[in-house]
Specification:
heterodimer; A: 617 residues; alpha/beta; Pyruvate-ferredoxin Oxidoreductase, domain 3; Rossmann fold; six-stranded mixed β-sheet; 20 helices; 35% helix; 21% strand; B: 344 residues; eight-stranded mixed β-sheet; three-stranded antiparallel β-sheet; 12 strands; 30% helix; 18% strand
């Protein structure tokens, strides 16, 4: 029997060595091809290989998909796949009432139960503690080994294939084709045909297990979602960000230079860019965070599109150099894939707590534009725009993303490259020397500005433009060192005004959903986009007077923001911090706001936000 | 590719800015020799970039009529790395000091040396913090009395050239502000080297550490304390060229050439290409003491030089190789990816 469902949330959970991330990603790609809308949330342990079988070692991958618009990876899951006792224990609390638990029986032997800290003699899949749920026990390890007994693979390699059994089973359960996984395995193990055969065999065994075992009477089907017409692909936030940067490089004609030091969760940007050298992308794994940003500054000085990327602790280290780039007035993009802080904090968990550091975390008066991505696919245009602002306004730009966006995935109606606007670059023109070797015309003024207070970019190697720049205060126009009090004040104000004027180039802020005036406006930024949309949609369906708007430009704000906020009786700002956007809004507009703050290292849950807004109605 | 220009003069490389080092500072001599050498070599100033960190020496770019950046403390090697990758044809001169390059920037110094970007790096060593008014530096001698060490410094000093050998530098040399001829020769050798050329220059800070190197620069003592290296020549020093360095296995020994026991042919012949000998030479780091018969004189000249692929050339090769293998990047294909589906 095939039953049709509107939406489903599945959590794959296992030991960090069980391959749950791969299982989740392969299932996601397969889901995307069916035309369902989806959102994912990988949740890994901090340690690469925490001791096997322990609670600390549990790795999870959550996917929410459906035949309707999907905004978040889901608060609670309909199905929990648990490869061992620890995975069950760590994830059971978010399983929906009457939800389904699928377990690998061998993951519940006495050793695993002990490591998961169950009481002596207590086995949750044998006693009646799961009686409120639908429980399926599958001897995954045993069946996988049986399947591979003649494969010639060692015990370890056989064991490693058990995620394919689970994947095959889940694909059967949701009436899928095995094609996308088959193609993946053929490509991945092109040089090791034994492994293709082995994995395919296990995958099919899992698939047929569902089909032939009488325990499973029902499989499910989710129809495609009513997404906008067009061609779609599945994309992670990390990929979208990198493709946006490369697009900006191609559209501006500037070679992309990326200086970075490995840090979770920003390292993927370095990996993904390093794989795109055929786009002329230059990656430089620097010796530390400071060297990474300084190398990017050097590259920008040399006429490349200089970019550096990091996460919170790295942004703290880059502060002085960002100030240098700011006073030099060179283009630079600083990516901050935020994570839980302070200090080392929670590297693999998400948070939005670096907004005020981005805004104020440098010595002296050093304002910088800040732009934030709101979803995985949105990171593409956010990255492109950050580069465009940096190049056209000769300034460092901070792009804020976070672990939740970077690791999450969603379907993307991707643009045609030819339709993306070119980015014009304002280089200073070379000056020709006369016969005596002297320069013609007036002396070159490196800090002469246009009507937007933007100076020209003069690249070393250009004939006749030799000039010196540095971190010392500069004289207006000439850029020579100056300690003159009036000049310092003029330069400080000019640099600030230059950033403020960027607002003239930004689109006006619009209401995302709901009326343009009313009782409540939910104002968000960054990765809370999905949850705010889901909750506000629900409230509107229930007949409540609620609207929402999401900020991409955090400094400067869009010019009409104050006016837009003034159309509502109450502004609610949900954030995964203790109120950083709220602080900026209050300071800039002297406006009362209602804060909804969570700092749990997790995305804000729909239920929590829904209840909070309802109480505010 | 770089171009050369005929009939340049040192002043063609001087800016209209007032030079603001203390009168009598060793930096003046270094600035003058750099400008002279650039003119003599006919460097095109549009293709030269002078990049510095922070400190007295790091004001250098403001006085050079070329491209230049006065960056932040200790980080010039990183700025240089990015600039060289952006434009491998630029002729980059990095200026640093003992505090900038070996204290706050010690980390970056290590990495630029091992990576081997083709740049000239001038390390002005005056064994003191000048800009901050006289604290001991990482190259100051132990027991040094300064404002921050009223009872004497207990920091053991770093040996910059041994450090550089440990970092796998491809070129290391030493010179001094008070010997313009030698300094110019070393600047030319640095420029000729393809790779990171580290030139340590002993520079007198006449305000906070006057005379730190007089033992090596004063006529009275110089011949016994300083050893001027020449490729293929024996290691000879002393007022009458009467002392030599003999290498017995790994062990260097000072011998007298006065009696007939040793001749110049017995001595250690300088070979810049010999890494093992270079390591020993950098260890000639005793406090100057001309009265000690076994005192090892301080070597000046090119201590080590080897040819090794530059970082920027290898970086460029990989990009070219990627283009050869995959073809020039196709933006549409990148954005589209592998699997797509239609809705509508």
């Amino acid at each position: 029997m095939i039953e049709t469902k509107q939406e489903v949330t599945i959590k794959f959970a296992g030991d960090s060595g069980d391959g749950m991330q791969l299982t989740g990603n392969l299932f996601t790609d397969n889901t995307a091809l069916t035309g369902s809308d989806l959102a994912t949330f990988p949740d890994f342990p901090a340690e690469i290989r925490a001791p096997a079988g322990t609670l600390a070692g549990v790795s999870g991958f959550q996917i929410h998909f459906g035949s309707k618009k999907i905004f978040t990876p889901g608060d609670q899951y309909d199905v929990l796949v648990a490869m061992n006792a620890a995975a069950l224990k760590a994830n059971l609390n978010n399983l929906k009432d009457r939800g389904t638990v699928i377990v690998n029986e061998e993951g519940f032997d006495s050793k695993n139960l002990r490591l998961a800290k169950y009481e002596d003699g207590e086995n949750p899949i044998e006693n009646d503690s799961l009686s409120d749920y639908e429980l399926f026990k599958i001897p995954v390890t045993k069946l996988t080994k049986e399947c591979l007994k003649d494969s010639g693979l060692g015990t370890k390699e056989q064991d490693r294939s058990k995620n394919m059994f689970v994947l095959g089973f889940i694909l059967w359960r949701y009436s899928r084709s095995l094609d996308s996984v088959t193609t993946y395995l053929q490509k991945k193990f092109a040089k090791k045909p034994t492994l293709i055969d082995a994995n395919l065999k296990v995958l099919k065994a899992g698939y047929h297990y569902g089909d032939t075992t009488e325990t499973f009477t029902t499989s499910y089907e989710i129809k495609s979602a009513p997404l906008e017409k067009g061609t779609y692909r599945n994309i992670t936030g990390g990929q979208a960000l990198v493709y946006g940067l490369i697009t900006a490089s191609q559209k501006s004609g500037l070679p992309l230079f990326y200086g970075s030091y490995p840090i979770t969760p920003a390292s993927d940007v370095l990996h993904l860019l390093a794989a795109q050298k055929h786009f002329g992308v230059k990656t430089f794994q620097a010796e530390d965070e400071i060297a990474a940003v300084c190398a990017a500054i050097g590259a920008s000085y040399g006429g490349n599109l200089g970019i550096t990327g990091t996460s919170g602790p790295g942004l703290a280290l880059k502060g002085e150099a960002m100030g240098l780039a700011m006073i030099l007035e060179l283009p630079l993009v600083i990516l901050n894939i935020q994570r839980g802080g302070p200090s080392t904090g929670m590297p693999t968990k998400t948070e939005q707590a670096d907004l005020l550091m981005a805004m104020y975390g440098r010595n002296g008066e050093s304002p910088l534009p800040i732009i934030a991505a709101q979803s995985p696919a949105d990171a593409f245009m956010t990255a492109y725009e950050a580069c465009k602002i940096a190049i056209q306004h000769m300034t460092p730009v901070i792009l804020l993303s976070d672990g939740y966006i970077a690791n999450g995935a969603e379907p993307w109606k991707f643009p045609n490259a030819a339709d993306i606007e070119k980015i014009t670059v304002n280089f200073a023109a070379a000056k020709k020397a006369n016969e005596n070797g002297a320069q013609n015309g007036e002396a070159f003024l490196p800090y002469k500005r246009d009507e937007n207070l933007v100076r020209k970019w003069a690249i070393p190697g250009t004939p006749g433009l030799g000039h010196r720049i540095g971190g010392l205060e500069k004289e207006y126009d000439t850029g020579n060192v100056s300690y003159d009090p009036d000049n310092h004040e003029l330069m400080t104000k000019t640099r600030a005004e230059k950033i403020a004027k960027i607002a003239n180039f930004l689109p006006e802020q619009k209401i995302d959903i709901g009326n343009e005036k009313g009782k409540i406006l939910v104002l968000g930024w960054g990765s809370t986009f999905g949850v705010i949309n889901a909750v506000v949609n629900t409230l509107i369906e229930e007949g409540h007077e609620v609207s929402s708007t999401h900020l991409r430009y955090l400094n400067p704000f869009p010019k009409n923001l104050e006016q837009l906020l003034n159309q509502f009786d109450k502004i609610i700002i949900p954030e995964i911090n203790t109120g950083q956007l709220a602080t900026l809004i209050k300071a800039q507009f002297l406006k009362e706001v209602v804060q909804f703050n969570k700092v749990r290292g997790l995305p804000i849950s729909k239920i929590d936000l829904y209840q909070f807004i309802k109480e505010q109605l | 590719m770089t171009t050369t220009i005929a009939n340049l003069k040192a002043k063609d490389f001087a800016t209209d800015q007032d030079v603001r080092w203390c009168p009598g500072c060793g930096d003046y001599s270094i600035l003058k020799q750099v400008q002279s050498v650039m003119a003599e070599l006919g460097l095109n100033k549009d293709e030269v970039a002078v990049i510095s960190g922070i400190g007295c020496s790091s004001r250098f770019p403001y006085y050079m009529e070329t491209y230049g950046m006065h960056s932040i403390h200790g980080r010039a090697p990183a700025v240089v790395s990015g600039l060289k990758l952006a434009n491998p044809d630029l002729n980059i001169w990095m200026i640093t000091g003992d505090g900038d390059g070996l204290s706050i920037g010690g980390n970056h110094m290590l990495h630029i040396l091992r990576r081997n970007f083709n740049v000239n790096m001038l390390l002005f060593n005056n064994q003191i913090y000048g800009l901050t008014k006289g604290q001991y530096s990482p190259t100051s001698e132990v027991h040094k009395n300064t404002k921050s060490t009223p009872m004497g410094s207990i920091d053991y000093p770093v040996n910059p050239l041994s450090f550089a050998m440990g970092a796998n530098a491809s070129f290391i040399a030493r010179s001094m502000d008070r010997d313009p001829k030698h300094l110019k020769e070393m600047l030319k050798r640095s420029q000729a080297h393809q790779g990171t050329a580290l030139l340590e220059i002993y520079q007198n800070c006449n305000i906070f550490n006057d005379g730190a190197f007089f033992a090596f620069t004063d006529k009275a003592t110089k011949s016994d304390t300083a050893l001027f290296l020449q490729q293929g020549e024996p290691l000879v020093f002393g007022a009458e060229n009467d002392k030599g360095v003999l290498l017995d296995g790994y062990k260097p020994t000072i011998v007298s050439l006065k009696d007939a026991q040793f001749s110049k042919d017995d001595l250690w012949m300088h070979d810049e290409q010999d890494m093992f000998k270079a390591q020993i030479l950098t260890r000639f780091f005793d406090e100057p003491n001309a009265d000690d018969p076994q005192y090892f004189p301080r070597p000046f000249g090119v201590i080590y030089q080897t040819n090794r692929a530059t970082y920027e050339a290898q970086h460029k090769d990989q990009i070219e190789q990627a283009v050869t293998q995959k073809g020039s990047g196709d933006l549409n294909a990148l954005i589209r990816g592998g699997s797509v589906w239609e809705i509508g």
